[in-house]
Each structure stands twice: as structure tokens, then as C-alpha cells.
Amino acid sequence: MPRHFTAADNELIRTQLLASGLAHFTQYGLRGMRVEDVCKDVGVAKGTFYKFFEHKEALFLAIADQRDQMHKAEIIAFFSQCDGPVADRAGRFFDQLVEKLMSDPLVAIIAVPDDFAALLRKTPPARLAHEEEKDLRFIETFCAGLKSEGLIGDVDPHDIAAILTLLVSLVLQKSLFSAGQFAASCTILREIFVQKLTASAP
């Protein structure tokens, strides 16, 4: 007879699947990670795994969403704790974002072309559109917060989103650049980001 899981059991299992999935994705990459190994870690059958996630790519996306929320909260907290001119704070915000992108193991995974292609094959277009919209809403909220504090004037969130999209693309393609080229490209994007964000500062 199949085991009945309570709501608390389900929450615990999902949390454990996310944690084990992160460890296995980090060690083996997207294509090398095996669902059965994660299930063994958590102590559940593969059938139970598929009650939570349609496939391992869905688990990857759930972990990515969790980490995205964590990073955004940390970056906002970091910015709010900074002092000094808004341009300096914007620059440090950008630097913090670069650090997050460079150090997150999931970013390193999707920087592998075959892993990224495998993820895209299993990601519905609607999900991709949702992620883009979610990021834009975050930027809108961020800019609105700065404006309400009197730090900036009107800023087009689409401009900021475009700059940050270029940054993510640059990080994902880092292996194609020399160290000097990559650093110079980041510096240029940083300057554009600060200029666009603070051009209307009082």
C-alpha cells in the first residue's frame, strides 16, 4: 500500500529534495545528475520524486527560483545598508550582483552549453516569459523604492533589465573571453548601469 504523506511530510520531502538536488547538480551538472541518487539521499522512491517534480529539470528550476529569491533579498538588503552618494551605492549594487552570478553553482551549470540546451528543451516558453516578467517586476520595485527615497528620478526599468540581461549573458559566456576582456566588459556594463540608474538623481 502506498504510504500516505501528511502536508508536513510533503513540505519536508520537498525541502530535502531541493537540498539534495542542489548538492548533486553542483557535483555532477544537469545532465550528470541522477534522480535515483537524490531519492536515495532523501529516502523516498522515484515515484515520490515525480509527485513533486515532473523531471529533474523541473527540480533544477525550483532550486534556481529559490536561490533567485534569496539573492534578490540579499542584494536589496545590501543596498539598503550602503551609504554615500547614490552612484557609489549603485556601483556596489552592481558589484554584488556580479559576485552572486560568479559564485552561484547553478549559474556555472547553465554556462555549460549542453546543460543549458538540455534545460531549455524542458522549459516551456511560458515559464521563460514568466521569469523575464518576474525580473522586470523586481527591477521596477527596486527603482520605485529608490525614487520614493528621493535618490533617483524617473528611470526606465526596461533599460536596467536590458543591462542586467547583458551582464548575465556575459557571465554565461565568460569562457569565451580573456580575463582582461571579461573584466573590461564588466566595467563598461557597470558604468552604463550606474549612469542609467542615476542620471535623473536629484
From TrEMBL:
Q: List, alphabetically, the InterPro entries matched.
A: Homeodomain-like_sf, HTH-type_TetR-like_transc_reg, HTH_TetR
Q: HTH tetR-type domain: from which residue to which, for each copy?
A: 11-71
| Top-rank taxon | Bacteria
Q: Which UniProt keywords apply?
A: DNA-binding, Transcription, Transcription regulation
Residues in the DNA-binding region are 34-53
Report if keyword Transcription regulation is assigned: yes
Please name one Pfam family that this protein belongs to. TetR_N
- Give the protein name, as stated in the record: TetR/AcrR family transcriptional regulator
Q: Which PROSITE patterns match?
A: HTH_TETR_2 (PS50977)
Q: Which SUPFAM superfamilies match?
A: Homeodomain-like
The record lists the organism as: Pelagibacterium nitratireducens
Keyword DNA-binding carried by entry: yes
